[in-house]
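Z., the sequence and structure:
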Amino acid sequence: MNREITLGDEIAALAAQLEAGEYRLITKIGEFDAQGGYAREGALSCAHWLSYRVGLGLGPAREKVRVARLLPKFPLIAQAFEAARVSYSKVRAITRVATPENEALLVEMATSAPASVLETLCRRFRGVLEAERETPEEADERRRVVFHHTDDGRLRLRAQLDAGEGARLLAALDLARFDVPADSPLTTFDV
């Protein structure tokens, strides 16, 4: 049993060292990007240079550059990352939604939530932030109801609505269901 605890402690210590190294890597990427070092070596962008030189996929390379550019703007996140209290995965998630006003809360969440949970929370929070910034015209562009009749005479409906409109549609469908004769194939909804 004692061997397992020692091995577990060793794994945790190595993970912390890797995260501290990841912090140093991200800060160096930020410096390299700011200095335009990638351009002097003939690359289109810092992400392209990382992909070629370090062997990262272009998507992960872009994420590292994005985080590297944002990290100096968020000192609490940077401190938690440098101290290995927050992993790169968590930093990547919270920098997508970080503002000076919510930075401390995000760091607190990141130190206590698993990365997968934090990723989900940040993705949902990002959706809320985007919806708040959305103009009425942009909301109208995202809103849609598409329907067509299938070969067997049924109606197929697909909708993308805001939460209030969606609730009203579901309520209307629920009410309409009771107006349909019991032997009708339309009494069951897959909503």
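The longest strand covers residues 144-149. The chain has ten helices and two strands.

Let me know what you think.
H.
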